[in-house]
Amino acid sequence: MCNIDKIFFELVAKFIYLETILTHYNWVHEEIKSRLKSGNACYHSVQSFWSSSLLFKNLKTKIYRTEILPVVMCGCETWSLTLKEDRRLRVLENGVLRRIFGPKRDEVTGKWRRLHNEELNDLYCSLCIVWVIKLRRIRWAGRVAGMGERRDTCRVLL
């Protein structure tokens, strides 16, 4: 228990505020794990779209960009990513893209195989999720820096 102005607050290891997980160590891996879980739930909720041959691949990528990415990247401007979290985010993205673009027939052997990551990047024709997060962080830092030093948010950033 913590006492501030005769008001008692319970000390907790983590809590959820505005759908964001806050921990007393300020770790973001709990938040990223939660976002990836939500992204997987979104991915599986539109499972019938991925296997449909009636939808074009560009429409499926738009569904990915508009339905799954916003869920995963909500609040990503404040994340400080480690290599492990980079990898986990890319695994989610590559899994969705492999489902969208499907397997590829090997020209030499004639067998079907999974697409390699480089092939997925070429087919997707957009920035990977990690680069989008980095660009959003830079944009957010620019906005905060433009607020002026009198604002609390700018003082925290500095």
Q: Figure out the total of helices.
A: 7
Helices and strands: which structural class? mainly alpha
Number of domains: 1
Total beta strands: 6
Low-confidence stretches: none
Quaternary status? single chain
| Rg measurement, Å | 20 Å
Polypeptide structure, described:
The protein has 158 residues and is mainly alpha-helical. The protein has one domain. The protein has seven helices and six strands. The strands form three sheets. Strands 1-2 form a two-stranded antiparallel ribbon. The chain has a two-stranded antiparallel sheet with strand order 3-4. Helix 1 packs antiparallel against helix 3 and helix 3 packs antiparallel against helix 4. The radius of gyration is 20 Å and the shape is elongated. It starts with a strand and ends with a helix.
Supply database-style keywords.
mainly alpha, 158 residues, 7 helices, two-stranded antiparallel sheet
What's this, in brief?
With 158 residues, this protein is mainly alpha-helical. The protein is built from 7 helices and 6 strands. A hairpin with a 2-residue loop joins β3 and β4.
Layout: helices, strands, pairs:
Layout: E1 2-4, E2 7-9, E3 14-17, E4 20-23, H1 29-45, H2 47-51, H3 57-72, H4 83-101, E5 104-105, E6 112-113, H5 117-124, H6 129-145, H7 152-157
Antiparallel strand pairs: 1-2, 3-4, 5-6
